[in-house]
């Protein structure tokens, strides 16, 4: 399939954590999604010259576990390429950690009391920059995310802006050089993703909940960045 000016590359790193509600968001913006699944043998592209946006999804891997998951190195290289091209980029969960590592930030393990809680709703505190951000401002009235209690960003990359934290001050969202976003939480979460991750959808707000609407608005805002960028 040939690429054109409205194509977005989506890297899925874990079979459990698919694109979820990102798919309809891209469709609403008239964007064509190119899904790459390295865990199924797909090769991670080495350049982004024919793409207008990049998304790296989450998963239950460690962002620096190159010995067990060699393609993580290629994903980090691709994220550096995206920065060099000033390409609208969204890293979610593991994708945010890879973005931080790729751009010389630092990640660390979950706090012991959090470890093992796969998915949970987390109240977010937006910074002033977050409230003014084209993506995070979508959460201004309902600042709640769903995240995985695992590794997280401990030190932001250079030229980055903190957008949101959790109750313990942990990084939940940051932006680098205006068009690269890292989100520790999962706005793409839907029934299929949550059920696959934890076997139940009890922790997921109802489809008509304002929290879910805010997540949708955030994804739509990113898709608009790709479409107009």
From TrEMBL:
PROSITE patterns: GATASE_TYPE_1. Pfam families: GATase. Keywords: Aminotransferase, Transferase. The keyword Transferase applies. GO terms for molecular function: transaminase activity. GO terms for cellular component: cytosol. Residues 22-190 form the Glutamine amidotransferase domain. InterPro entries: ChyE-like (IPR044992), Class_I_gatase-like (IPR029062), GATASE (IPR017926). This is Aminotransferase. It comes from Brachybacterium phenoliresistens. The lineage of its organism: Bacteria, Bacillati, Actinomycetota, Actinomycetes, Micrococcales.
